[in-house]
Design a protein that fits this description.
Number of strands: 10
InterPro entries: ARR-like (IPR045279), CheY-like_superfamily (IPR011006), Homeodomain-like_sf (IPR009057), Myb_dom_plants (IPR006447), Sig_transdc_resp-reg_receiver (IPR001789)
Subcellular location: Nucleus
Low-confidence stretches: 1-5, 130-185, 261-445
Shape: elongated
Main location: nucleus
Number of helices: 17
Order of helices and strands: EHEHEHEHEHHHHHHHHHEEHEEEHHH
Keywords: Nucleus, Transcription, Transcription regulation, Two-component regulatory system
GO cellular component, one term: nucleus
Strand content: 5-15%
Mean pLDDT: 56
DNA sequence: CTCCCAATAT
DNA sequence: AATATTGGGA
């Protein structure tokens, strides 16, 4: 009954000690279109609020005792920040305690769905206060516009649309209807999160990808409050993703076969003869590249495994690949072409690896560089050709470690990757990753 | 008219 | 990037 009134995109930070409960909170909040930042530790939540208070509209913090760090935090910033306390302590005393200390709300566990949905009311209040203050002050107004997640902007936008279309078609009657509907039942953006998407996939699976059409999927999903159009839209995206995945697979396939051809000639056996490069690995870095699934498609790094080859995609421009280990052969068009028969772009054979001043060709770095006007490049590939024995999961990981070292990325990129994963430096990004960990069934994108 | 799909808009 | 809306065609 409140659908349509909830402002989208309010940024909510949420912490609960119980990871499972936290996950369910996150999921629900996402369903309500909130932008959720998940904190597994109280400490983390507090740190984020202390340092990035402006990045959140609302904080939902679980708290049990009124003597902890959260309580102190609340007394410090409670007046500037919408902090909602959740607790299983249902005593009046506790409620009063927290509210007095600055909490803008206190929700007793278990929390009702609807209460969670309605948390935005607090942000609204704050917003309105800010706006009235900002009539004169410019900075605050700017900030509010920038975040674009305040209700004021939300309504503003609708008002503009209304005005515009009224101007265009000159008809008031239709507009009046729309106007009425806007303020009551305007469709809100559906978030295909967790459960919803799972059911969708199940339905598609049930009919088969060619036979699955929006209406059938909708019926099979049997979920209230979603429309055929919702499903149709999602299906369109779903199909596109599949297609993209297929294309990607095909590409990898063709690359690995051409690689194999190359290495089947002389020198191929030298690649792994008596070589142990694992000591030079930094195992920590591997987590950037290797996921348990054997496929990591985050931030452009992906790894996939065929029976004999390990293929690693990465994203750097080839001219950046001046690692301390590798020597890059930019001047060998012939070899490049050998890799490239099936590719439209130019490719480079980049390889080699030096240890104790003795060169050993360990890896060939294959990079189909598709120059576009925007200087965007296709991923590069590293290939370990022809392992002598079938690759098991664990040896796969070991081999993968080898690869990283050989350093597809120089230290520069490694640092970048680490930075990219640094939650504190990049709260939004970090939260997205955590959210995935917590509430999504993983798998290749 | 309903539905599907692809393109386009937000 | 994700979702909604639109418009033509089956």
């Amino acid at each position: 009954m409140f659908s349509g009134k909830i402002p989208e995109g309010l940024r909510v930070l949420v912490f609960d000690e119980d990871p499972q409960y936290l996950s369910s909170l996150v999921e629900h909040l996402q369903e309500f279109q909130y932008k959720v930042t998940r904190c597994n530790e109280e400490e983390e939540a507090i740190y984020l609020l202390r340092t990035h208070m402006n990045k959140f509209d609302i904080a939902i913090l679980e708290a049990q005792n009124p003597y902890g760090a959260t309580f102190r935090l609340l007394s410090e910033i409670g007046s500037e920040m919408n902090i909602i306390i959740i607790s299983k302590d249902d005593s009046v005393k506790s409620v009063i305690n927290w509210i007095r200390n600055g909490a803008c709300d206190y929700l007793i566990k278990p929390i009702r769905h609807e209460d969670l949905r309605l948390i935005f009311k607090h942000a609204v209040k704050k917003m309105e206060v800010r706006r009235s203050v900002a009539v004169v002050g410019e900075a605050e107004d700017k900030a509010a516009k920038q975040s674009s997640s305040y209700v004021g902007d939300f309504t503003m936008r609708n008002a503009n649309e209304r005005k515009r279309s009224m101007f265009l078609d000159g008809q008031a009657s239709k507009e009046d209807q729309n106007h009425y509907r806007d303020s009551t039942t305007k469709k809100r953006r559906l978030a295909w999160v967790g459960n919803l998407h799972t059911k969708f996939v199940e339905a598609v699976d049930y009919f088969g990808i060619d036979k699955a059409v929006p209406k059938k999927i909708l019926e099979r999903m049997n979920i209230e409050n979603i429309t055929r159009d919702n499903v149709a839209s999602h299906l369109q995206k779903f199909r596109m993703n599949l297609k993209k995945q297929n294309d990607q697979n095909k590409k990898n396939q063709s690359l690995t076969t051409s690689q194999r051809r190359m290495y089947s000639g002389e020198g191929s056996s030298e690649f792994h003869r008596g070589m142990n490069v694992q000591q030079i690995l930094n195992p920590n870095l591997m987590t950037q590249f290797i996921s348990p699934l054997g496929h990591h498609d985050d931030d452009g790094v992906s790894v996939s495994l065929s029976e004999r080859n390990l293929v690693m995609n990465h994203q750097y421009h080839h001219t950046h690949q001046t690692s301390q280990f590798g020597c890059i052969d930019h001047n060998n068009p012939e070899e490049s072409l050998a890799y490239n028969e099936e590719e439209a772009g130019v490719s480079k054979l980049i390889c080699s690896f030096t240890q104790d001043s003795e060169e050993m060709s360990l890896l060939h770095l294959y990079e189909p560089v598709m120059e576009t006007m925007m200087h965007v490049h296709e991923p590069s590939m590293v290939d370990i050709p022809s392992f002598p024995s079938p690759v098991t999961q664990s040896s796969f990981l070991n081999q993968a470690k080898t690869i990283t070292m050989v350093d597809v990325c120089g230290q520069q990129q490694i640092n970048n990757l680490i930075d990219g994963n640094n939650f504190l430096d990049n709260p939004r990004l970090g939260s997205a990753k955590r959210d995935q960990d917590g509430s999504r069934s993983g798998g290749p994108a």
